[in-house]
Structures are given as structure tokens and as C-alpha cells.
Design brief:
Elements (H helix, E strand, L loop, with lengths): L7 H4 L18 H15 L12 H18 L2 E4 L3 E7 L2 E6 L2 E4 L5 E7 L4 E10 L5 E12 L2 H6 L4 H17 L4 H5 L3 H19 L3 E12 L5 H70 L1 H17 L21 H7 L8 E4 L5 E4 L1 H9 L9
Antiparallel strand pairs: 1-4, 2-3, 2-5, 6-7, 7-8, 9-10
Helix pairs in contact: 2-3, 5-7, 8-9
Length: about 375
């Protein structure tokens, strides 16, 4: 119901300023308002002076001004976080950079915009791009960066984040357009990542956006869906080729050292056998050269000695005993029967030959052997 509508408030009209019946139209007197406010402030601060009239309105305004100044000064304190920096604008124009901690600004004059300079931010660039060999590939790349200069980040360009996104897209398209499809999908990913980071830094330095690129990650690179199966087969074949090459290299690295070592061992054994044979031959030649004068002086004696030495070397590992038939039967021979019996393998009853230098072998029967063993206490035998 409108304020001047008939019947309002029980038939009494009331205007917006509280006048009933439409009397005294218009706003209340300003002096009256300030007077009431002054009286309230005097009561609040314990004042007992006269109410604000024409002369007391100045004192009331002074009190109001002081209270407002106090409130204005207190409200200007603010805090900046440890990882943040505050950019102060005075009447909309850059003034200074505030460090972390408790600071103060002039309200309605200064404005503060905080920027986190330690947080690592991330943006992703992707899209279908044309390669050097006229193939289409979809590439995704993630760029990590942080704010290096808050002032430049906020005011060097309209939007530093959008500018970096456009710079990433431009740099990525330039690098992809200078590479072939196989390099992008297989072996050239690291090179593309490094070249893209260099190109992004070049653009950032030129526009001076106050941003520092921390890392660039080459996420995925894949061909269009229409030819994806064919490219997958090509990539699988390439991977199989690299795997077979690595397996062959591993087999070569395992076999080649062994074969080289075996060949070296055989060569050294052959050289050793050669030196041994040559030395033995040279020793025998030297021995015969020393025996030659003796043989020329006494042929029979030398021949007999050589014969005995040869027989000794032949029969040294046998159980046969050689005796001299020319020595006669009166000599007493001492035979090492215990060693002969230990060297002789256990056999069934049989004959044991005894050789003589003239080639005649004497056989002793088993009964003679037993009788001989019965007399072995003295470890003597007579022939």
C-alpha cells in the first residue's frame, strides 16, 4: 500500500519522512539530525556540554572526523602471505611492491593486488598440427611456469596466462611443422620438447611478461583416428626392430668375450706346447752332444748304461724285477717285496714273470710265490 493511499495506517496518511496526515512535506532539517548525533556522541564520550546547535555543529563534525580517521587508519592494515607479493596501485597507477608480512595502505587511495610468486602453475597446449612431411598429428604438451615479476605479470600484457597459452601454441606449431611424423611419434620427442621450451622462452623474453618457464612436458603425440591402426603397426614394427637389435647386441656381448678368451687360451697353450717341445728337443740334442765324446771313448760301456737307463724308465712302474744273470748265484739280493705286492693288483692264482736283460722271463708258480711270501719276514729273496 502506498504511503499516501487513503486508509493507510488506520485512515492516517504517513509520508516517507514520518509525517502523518501529509503535514510538513519534505525531508527533516539537517541541523536537527546533526544535533541528535552530537548529543549521542557526547553521551558516549561522557560530554556534558550543550546540544549541538548552530555553533556546536562544528564540534560534532570534528568528533565525527576524528572517529572516521581512526576507523580509516585501522582498516588500512593488511597481511601478505609468505609466498605472495603485493602490488600497490595508487589512484589506479603502479606505486610499489610490498613484501610478505603486516603492511598498511591508504584506503580509497591505494589498492593491493597479491600475486603468488612461488606456486608452480600449469597450462596445457594441444591441437591438430601439420608436420614437415605433410602428415597431421595431434599433440599435447604441458607447460609448468611461475611468476618471476609480479608487476610485469599483471600489467606488461593484458593477461599473462592467455599470452603464455598462445605462445605455447605458436611455439609448438612451429616446432612440429619443422619435424617429420616418425620423429614426433618415436625418437624425436626429447628434441621436440627442448626446442619447444627454447621457443617459448624466446617469446616470453620478447614480450617481457614476468613469467619463468620451469619445465615443458611432451605428453602425447598420436595420428588421426582414421590412420591410427596403420601408424600403430608401424610403431610396433619399429619397436620390434629395436628389440631384436638389442637382443642381438646382448648375445654378441655375451659370446664374443668367451670366444676371444677361448682363442687366447688355445693360442697360449699352443705356444707353451711349442716352447716345451723345442726346449725338450734342444735338451736332448745337448745331452747327446755331451754323450758323443764318451761314446766315442767307450762305446760298450756307454751303450750298456743307456740300455739300463732305458729299461729303468720303462719298468719303473711295473712289478717286474730285473737281475743280472751274469752276477752268479752266490750274491744275496734284497727285494722290496712289500712294495711289489702292494703295486700288484689282486689276481687269481697265476704266474709272475721275472725278466732278465737278455729277454728271458722267469715264471714263478703260485706255490713258489706263497713260499716266497712265507719267507718275507726277512724281506729277502734269492735267485
Amino acid at each position: 500500500m502506498a504511503w499516501n493511499e487513503p486508509g493507510n495506517n488506520g485512515g492516517q496518511d504517513k509520508d516517507p519522512w514520518g509525517n502523518r496526515g501529509g503535514r510538513d512535506q519534505g525531508p527533516p532539517d539537517l541541523d536537527e539530525i546533526f544535533g541528535k548525533l552530537g548529543r549521542k556522541l557526547n553521551g558516549l564520550f561522557g560530554g556534558s556540554g550543550p546540544s549541538l546547535g548552530g555553533g556546536g555543529s562544528a564540534a560534532g563534525l570534528g568528533v565525527i572526523a576524528v572517529v572516521g580517521a581512526v576507523i580509516w587508519g585501522i582498516s588500512g592494515f593488511y597481511t601478505i602471505g609468505e609466498a605472495e607479493r603485493g602490488v600497490i596501485l595508487r589512484f589506479g597507477e603502479y606505486n610499489r611492491i610490498e613484501q610478505p608480512g603486516l603492511n598498511w595502505k591508504a584506503n580509497f587511495i591505494d589498492d593491493v593486488r597479491t600475486v603468488n610468486v612461488e606456486a608452480i602453475r600449469s597450462l596445457r597446449g594441444s591441437g591438430l598440427m601439420l608436420t614437415k612431411d605433410e602428415n597431421v598429428v595431434r599433440v599435447e604438451m604441458d607447460v609448468q611456469y611461475r611468476v618471476a615479476d609480479p608487476k610485469k605479470y599483471l600489467y606488461a600484457v593484458t593477461s599473462a596466462d592467455d599470452s603464455l597459452r598462445q605462445a605455447t601454441d605458436s611455439a609448438l606449431r612451429a616446432v612440429i611443422g619443422d619435424a617429420v611424423m616418425d620423429e614426433i611419434l618415436t625418437t624425436g620427442r626429447q628434441v621436440i620438447r627442448e626446442r619447444t621450451q627454447v621457443e617459448i622462452n624466446r617469446i616470453i623474453d620478447r614480450y617481457d611478461m614476468g613469467i619463468q618457464v620451469v619445465d615443458v612436458n611432451f605428453q602425447t603425440a598420436r595420428p588421426p583416428e582414421q590412420v591410427k591402426d596403420a601408424f600403430d603397426d608401424a610403431i610396433a614394427a619399429r619397436e620390434d626392430e629395436e628389440r631384436f637389435i638389442r637382443e642381438a647386441e646382448a648375445y654378441r656381448n655375451d659370446i664374443l668375450p668367451k670366444a676371444t678368451g677361448r682363442a687366447e687360451r688355445l693360442k697360449k697353450e699352443a705356444l707353451g706346447y711349442k716352447e716345451k717341445t723345442v726346449n725338450e728337443a734342444q735338451g736332448e740334442v745337448a745331452q747327446f752332444e755331451k754323450l758323443l765324446p764318451e761314446y766315442a771313448a767307450a762305446p760298450d760301456v756307454t751303450r750298456s748304461r743307456l740300455y739300463l737307463e732305458a729299461m729303468e724308465s720303462v719298468f719303473e712302474n711295473t712289478s717286474k724285477v730285473l737281475i743280472d744273470s751274469k752276477s752268479g748265484g752266490g750274491n744275496l739280493l734284497y727285494l722290496p717285496l712289500d712294495k711289489l705286492m702292494s703295486q700288484r693288483p689282486q689276481q687269481s692264482s697265476g704266474a709272475q714273470p721275472v725278466s732278465q736283460p737278455n729277454g728271458i722271463e722267469l715264471e714263478r708258480s703260485s706255490t713258489d710265490t706263497q713260499s716266497q711270501s712265507g719267507r718275507s719276514n726277512s724281506r729277502q729273496g734269492r735267485f
